[in-house]
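Hi R.,

Here's the chain you asked about this morning:
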Amino acid sequence: MSLHQQPDLKQAVLSLTPKEKDKLLVRLISKDKMLIKQLHFQLLEDESDLADRIDNLRDALTQLFKTTKVGNFMDLNRLVKQASGMVNEHEKVTKDKVSELEFRILILKEATSRHVDLFSNSYFSSSEKLRKYIAGRIKHALGKYTKLHEDLQFEYRDQLQELIDFGFTSGLQSYCRALNIPTQID
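And the predicted structure, written out as tokens:
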């Protein structure tokens, strides 16, 4: 239930002394790990810290793809989801849309270039989940791309087009079509 749905409780909280509010606020914040990370970033970090976070995540993602053994479709699906989770956390904490797109493209490039053989035409049911997921990630990255300013889009246009081209020349083709992914970026 929301605090807005309980106006009496809201009023009681607002009428607390500043010391009581501070104590309550600290107790509430400590129960939400993501909120702690967001507040730390917003209140204690600056642009150089964001640059460090971006570099560290880029290195972590690259290392993850280099060191994780992928033997089949399910392994790659798990790896891509793990990497996507890392990017999701980064975006929730920093709210940086540019680096989010950069990392989404990086994940897709790593997955498709390192494991091309897993994207050939195949009728394994396990490959269907991976292909559907990767095609969805391409569409998701395209959506992030279209929301950026056109000057920023310029930086990522070629990389994203390469992924789309791969999608339409691999076993992802039917999934890309089903998701109405355009063959060319405007």
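Residues 50-178 form one domain.

Let me know if you need anything else.
M.
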